Amino acid sequence: MDLYRQLRLVRQHWWIVLLTVMVALGITALVTVRAQPRYVASVTFFVTTPSQGVTDAYQGGLFLQQRVKSYAELLTSDRLAQSVVAENPIGLTAEEVQRRVSTSTETGTVLLRASVTDTDQNRALKVTELLSAKFVELVQKVETTQDGKAGPIKIEVVSGPRVSPTPVSPQPVRNFAVGTLLGLLAGVSLAILRGLADVRLRDAAGLQRTTGSPLLGEIPFESTAKSEPLIVGDAANSARAEAVRKLRTNLRFVDVHEPARVIAVTSALQGEGKTTLSCNLAIALAEAGWRVLLVDADLRRPKVADYLGLDAGIGLTDVLVGDVQVGDVVQRWGDKSLLVLPSGSAPPNPSELLGSKAMADLLLALRESADIVIIDTAPLLAVTDGVVVAVQADGALLVSQQGRTSRTQVAAAARSLNSVSVRLLGCVLNMAKVAKAEAYQYEAYRVVTATGTPDVPADRAPSARHAERIDGPGDRTQELTRLSR
Fold it and tell me: Tens digit of pLDDT for each residue in 304-353?
């Protein structure tokens, strides 16, 4: 995975990074507040020996550097700790004194530094003073010769003992800096892992890669789309309506040498917005002057008639079983050149009905009666109805909702179409999150007419059931005949 994708995953899951940093800072603050202040008392020793001449001084220096390492071990030994607590009761055991003592040396020197860390400032200083005195005394005993003379090594205190006036820990600034860094690293790691584990579609590029088909549209999410699904009225001037018009343009030029006149609109799962898109695409095509026929072929859960405010009692099912003629049930919508064929009665065998010869003959007749036929079909992974209809059309349009459908489900839907040689015209990412800059650009550029101007009068809003029925069987037949001229 390249760096660009990692940064994109971190950007998509920025809230994980923010939450992790806040948790890390909270833990750091809790630990810092509850931590006991610790003080350090220190003393520095200088190890020396008499020498004569430059050569003796050089050899003596090397000898002392080796001795200093041994004295550092002696400062943290059990013997020295026991001698400190034996003669001076300080409220600590020998093991506790030993744990509080640390030593350090500087390379190339004969300086030895001992430090005592304690939560009690006075006790830290007291232990350091006792440790210093007992250490000098112990070294003198060790270095004394057998005849009672002083050895060649001399220990002098050159600094201290003294204690730090302020606690050496906790250090709030350092703690919060480390906590922020650790939280940031953990957050970035979690964001990347979350992105890698997330199999849902998050962008248009992922949809295009998964389906292997061109991206024809990216419909932005709008909170008002649930109550106003159609791009009419005030919604006709929205960014969603403009995205549908772009889809209309891309769809008409997806293949100029073999244009698709019968288009099946489907999706992998239920609830991805395929029916809404079918209706809006048909409206947009009709606005451009095309003769459009919208067919509701989702016989299990039809929604086209509800969205458009039409009567769904008689429709496609009744035509296929031979009860009525198609001209008797086609309904005109609004004042546009848009005809709608509802689903009709609920059949017990929708798959067999949609795959029948009657359906093939109907699509052939409808192809001659309109410039473009839009067919709303059932989801591909739920039932086989969508594939049965798509194989009889000129091509299919696959709709996927951002953040809901997984890449595996979309790939399975595309495979189901490819397995029966359905021409996949392209894919559409529905309910997409659009950057604020793009939304602002559209709002700043769009043109609103003087009256504020919906494309359909207010009294013909979807809630007003503004279908314009064609009166009489003869008139319906004449309407289809007129449109086919």
Answer: 999 999 988 899 999 999 999 998 899 998 776 899 999 988 898 899 99
Quick one: pLDDT band at residue 440, thresholds 50, 70, 90?
low
| H helix runs in 198-329, sequence order | 204-211, 239-252, 274-287, 304-308, 316-320, 326-329
Give whole-number Cα distances, 11 to 5, 20, 193, 226, 444, in Å.
10, 14, 13, 28, 27
Map out the domains of the chain as residue ranges: 3-35+171-197, 39-163, 204-483
Give the DSSP letter string of 155-223. Answer: EEEEEEEEE-SS-SB--HHHHHHHHHHHHHHHHHHHHHHHHHH--B--SHHHHHHHHTS-EEEEEEP-G
Strands of 39-48's sheet, edge to edge? 101-105, 111-118, 39-48, 154-163
Distance between CA atoms of residues 314 and 312, nearest Å? 6
Please state, in angstroms and as integers, the Cα–Cα distance from residue 18 to each residue in 29, 142, 153, 446, following that order.
16, 60, 60, 36
Confidence class of residue 446 from pLDDT cuts 50, 70 and 90? Answer: low
Question: What pLDDT, in 10s, does the model give residues 178-209?
Answer: 999 999 999 999 998 888 777 787 788 889 99
Distances, alpha carbon 450 to alpha carbons 447, 453, 454, in Å = 10, 7, 11
- How many Å from the N-terminal Cα to the C-terminal Cα in the chain? 57
Question: Residue 435 — φ and ψ, nearest 5°?
Answer: -60, 145
Task: Look up residue 57 and give its amino acid.
Answer: A
Q: Six-digit token pair at 457?
A: 């009068």
If we measure between CA atoms, which residue out of 218, 221, 193 comes closest to residue 208?
A: 218
pTM value?
A: 0.64
Residue 227: other Cβ atoms inside 10 A: 8
Return the DSSP state at 433: P
Can you tell me which residue has the tokens 């860390």? Answer: 117
The verdict on domain 39-163 having CATH code 3.30.9.10 is no
Q: What is the CATH number of domain 204-483?
A: 3.40.50.300
Q: What is the dihedral of CA 298, 302, 304, 309, to 10 degrees?
A: 160
